[in-house]
Amino acid sequence: MPNITTIAMGERIPKVIHQTYYTKTNLPVPLQENINRIRLLNPGWEHRLYDDADIEGIILQHYGQDMLDIYHLIDPAYGAARADLFRYLLIYAQGGVYLDMKSTTTRPLDEVLWPDDHYILSKWDGNKYYGWGLHPELAGIERGEFQQWHVIAAAGHPFLHAVLEQVVRNILHYKAATIGVGFKGVIRTTGPLAYTFAIEAIRPLHPYRQVEIEHDLGVIYSIYDSSSADRNKNHRQISKKHYTELDIPLIKYNPQQAA
C-alpha cells in the first residue's frame, strides 16, 4: 500500500469549485447551463472542470505513479468510483469545494461558508430524501451516511487522509464475492460507506461544521429529478452506463486481492 504523505492542514477553504466529467467538449446542455449559473453566482471563485486526462495528470503530479496505478485498478466502466477516489485525492491536496456534476449552488458560497470553516459535513434530509443513506452497515450511526457528492474542505484535512487510507485499502483487497458489484460494490469500496466509516472514527478529533447542506448552504444535490424512474428526467442520463446497472467486478485483478 502506498504511503499517503500527510499534508499540513490549510487555514481556510480555498475559493475554488471543482467538478469532473469524462469530457469537456459537447457537454449536455443542462450541465453546461449549470456550470454557467455556478460561475455567475460565485464571481470571486475559480471554477475548474476536469476530464479524464486532467484527472490522471493531477494524480500523477500530487501522488505519483503508485497512486495512479491504484486508480487504474478501478474498472473504467465504474466512472463513479474513479470519481470518488479522485475527489478525495484532489481536495486533500488542493482544498476547495468539490461538487458532483449534477449538483449546484443556489446561494453565493461567500455568504454561506465561514472564514474558520475547515470541513463541511452533512447528512440526508430525511423528509426530502426519505430513507437515503440508511444502510444496514451504518445502523449504529445516527442518520446514516455522510454525503460525499460534495467534499468541502481545507487542503490537508485529516478526515480526507483517513478516507484515502480506507479507500486505497478497500481497492487493494477488493473481492467481488464478498464486497459485491454495482451499487453495493461502489458504496462499500470508494463511496459513502467507506467515507463515513473513516470520518466517524476520528470525527471528534478535528475541526468541522455539520450542516443541512441544502437548507443551510443552498448547495443542491441534483439539478435533475432524482426521484424519477425515467432515465431522461433523472441524473442517470448523464452517465455512459450508470454504475447501479453494472454486474462486473469493480476492481480489476490485483495480486494483493488474493492475500
TrEMBL record:
Signal peptide: none annotated. Gene3D superfamilies: 3.90.550.20. It holds the Pfam family Gly_transf_sug. InterPro entries: GlycoTrfase_DXD_sugar-bd_CS (IPR007577), Nucleotide-diphossugar_trans (IPR029044), Och1-like (IPR039367). It comes from the Bacteria. One of its GO terms (molecular function) is alpha-1,6-mannosyltransferase activity. One of its GO terms (biological process) is protein N-linked glycosylation. Keywords: Transferase. PANTHER family: INITIATION-SPECIFIC ALPHA-1,6-MANNOSYLTRANSFERASE (PTHR31834:SF1). This is Glycosyltransferase sugar-binding region containing DXD motif. It comes from Thiothrix nivea (strain ATCC 35100 / DSM 5205 / JP2). The lineage of its organism: Bacteria, Pseudomonadati, Pseudomonadota, Gammaproteobacteria, Thiotrichales.
